[in-house]
Q: What sequence folds into this?
């Protein structure tokens, strides 16, 4: 562990005359912390461990500052070593017991399992659900709805003026939804230490917030993050166009009526599909609309190709692949054919949805919404 503690970090906090002696002490203590703490903690009763922890850490720090840290064993070791260089008065046995107490009660892995001080104990936040399964990080923050509701009240009292109603920021405060600190936070593990350092709030210094308030604020902010993601994935109302204008475009500038007929292939389409599906079908008929059978309807029509070589007959079939160098197809008998593309090789491609592809560069937003509104009337 001592190899990860840069020497200049130690020396900056020491008088020049004491540098070599104290640096040696730090290295020795770091090695001791690595080899002895487990045995020391095994012999220390629970009550004794807490007393030692309060003696070692509580002299200079509020317990709340520790509760919301959620550090790894290595980080707690480094913290204790730093405290020694700054003048911590404790025996080697006491520092070892304090380390084990911190890891067991305020370690990151422990708190991420939802059993740490932010999740249980007197004056602490709500218990967290077990991890595993579902989308997202393996240790993703699982929102407790009741805690988030309580956190909303604290947020409204202390944070809303700067960070906005839904934590998306204002001219006075940052967007918390996009905050890296919030992204890394788990039940206050990052938000807590940040607030306890002192952050402007509306009524009370942020350092005075209780562990429960911090945990509940964390639940509320993560709730808003998830709500933002859900809103981005929800299909919004697409029936905002003018059906009459859509009919005019269908039969006029769009030239849709050259291939489709309201009385033929489009008869009753507004009754078979909801507006979002209608929009997807006419904009992306091959890849989205017809291609996903869950929407119903026939499968997409294949792209076909006819290849004629200089010294052979024309071969036609369903296109498998085509780029600047090669072309391949599968004929009606299922046989696979491929050619290297040369100036002498003639290739004719037939894409039944080519007109739709071309129109994507011509549609305006109004055109698209008008067409959807018109198609929805064909019932």
A:
């Amino acid at each position: 562990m001592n190899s990860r503690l840069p020497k200049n970090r130690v020396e900056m906090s020491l008088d020049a005359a004491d540098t070599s002696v104290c640096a040696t002490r730090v290295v020795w203590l770091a090695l001791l912390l690595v080899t002895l703490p487990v045995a020391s903690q095994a012999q220390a009763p629970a009550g004794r461990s807490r007393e030692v922890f309060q003696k070692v850490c509580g002299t200079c720090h509020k317990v709340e500052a520790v509760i919301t840290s959620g550090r790894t064993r290595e980080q707690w070791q480094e913290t204790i070593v730093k405290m020694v260089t700054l003048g911590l008065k404790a025996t080697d046995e006491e520092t070892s017991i304090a380390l084990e107490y911190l890891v067991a009660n305020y370690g990151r892995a422990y708190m991420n399992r939802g059993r740490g001080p932010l999740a249980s104990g007197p004056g602490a936040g709500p218990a967290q659900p077990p991890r595993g399964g579902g989308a997202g990080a393996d240790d993703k923050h699982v929102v407790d709805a009741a805690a988030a509701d309580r956190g909303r009240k604290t947020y409204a009292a202390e944070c809303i003026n700067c960070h906005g109603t839904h934590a998306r920021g204002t001219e006075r405060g940052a967007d918390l939804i996009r905050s890296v600190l919030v992204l890394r936070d788990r039940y206050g593990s990052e938000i807590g230490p940040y607030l306890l350092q002192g952050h402007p709030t509306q009524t009370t210094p942020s350092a005075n917030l209780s562990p429960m308030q911090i945990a509940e604020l964390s639940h509320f902010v993560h709730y808003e993050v998830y709500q933002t993601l859900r809103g981005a994935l929800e299909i919004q109302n697409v029936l905002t166009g003018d059906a009459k204008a859509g009919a005019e475009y269908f039969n006029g500038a769009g030239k849709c009526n050259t291939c489709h007929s309201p009385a033929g292939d489009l008869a009753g389409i507004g009754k078979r599909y909801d507006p979002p599906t209608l929009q997807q079908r006419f904009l992306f008929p091959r890849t989205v609309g017809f291609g996903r059978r869950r929407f119903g309807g026939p499968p997409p029509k294949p792209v076909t190709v006819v290849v004629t070589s200089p010294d052979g007959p024309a071969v036609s079939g369903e296109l498998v692949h085509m780029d600047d160098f090669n072309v391949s197809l599968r004929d009606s008998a299922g046989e696979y054919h491929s050619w290297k593309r040369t100036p002498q090789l003639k290739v004719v491609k037939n894409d039944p949805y080519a007109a739709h592809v071309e129109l994507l560069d011509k549609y305006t937003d109004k055109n698209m919404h008008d067409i959807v509104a018109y198609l929805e009337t064909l019932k």
